[in-house]
Amino acid sequence: MCDECIKQICVEGQITQINRSHHCPYIVTPPSCELLGFAVQVNGDKCCPQWECPCRCSILANLHIITFDGSDFGISGAASYVMASLANETIIVGISECLSSQMLNINSRFGYTPFRRFDFEIIDTGSMYTILTPAGINIQWFHSTGIMVIDTGTPNKKLATTGLCGYCDGNRINDLTLKNGTVLKKDDDPVTFIQDWTLASTETGIKMSRRLEVNCSTSNCSECFRMLQSETFALCHAQVSPEMFCELWIRDSLFVNNHCSALAAYVALCNKFNICLEWRKPDYC
């Protein structure tokens, strides 16, 4: 079958082939967006695609958050947190001590899927809840891993958000921005940032930090690498490398002290790349 990106033209009686992909001003290979997931094509030209990393915030089941720009930190305590706030819309995630039912809580009212009202929609695809908001935010909540992904598009067509998910501009320096506009430094403990975006009426009074001020260069990550050596996890190494995950692992005290929680987080991140891993066993996690 003829390649759509190759054209044949006649030059001085000779047939010459021109590959449009070779003359593309963009890098046609999708970039690695690391823990944000797959890159997104932002134009419609299959021969000269333009790629961008998505504005995609993830909340893992163990409450480790990866912001729109790829910063990460863990939260502790049952409370309601502002994940993303816009001028006319706010995404709040409520963390409870235990699950009471399989129903969704919508503005403090319980409802079943599918749920549609005005420009708000919740459907259950079988593998996840998909929530579409009037402002254009897409939320995916996966059944198998518990990971919640908040997607606002790409920096090229971004929604100006604040909250725990940060502001998507490709710059991690301003991820920890307080309500008053103050930006915490990269090495500051995120507890102040987390508290600022916690609804005051839901605070439990417990201010625990999961952040460890270390990395794999200054501390021993060998235990993390050992856990991921299994062939079960090898299927995902090309997308979520052990080196990348272990840098996240060593900074979170929950992961360091709970191997099952750490591996569940790794599997959830693999799920963002459409990789499903069966790793739990009756005698393991």
TrEMBL record:
InterPro entries attached to this UniProt entry: Mucin_vWF_Thrombospondin_sf (IPR050780), VWF/SSPO/ZAN-like_Cys-rich_dom (IPR014853), VWF_type-D (IPR001846)
UniProt keyword Disulfide bond present: yes
Keyword vocabulary terms for this entry: Disulfide bond, Glycoprotein
Keyword Glycoprotein included in the entry's annotation: yes
VWFD domain ranges (all copies): 1-205
Any GO CC annotation of this UniProt entry: extracellular matrix
Record-given protein name: VWFD domain-containing protein
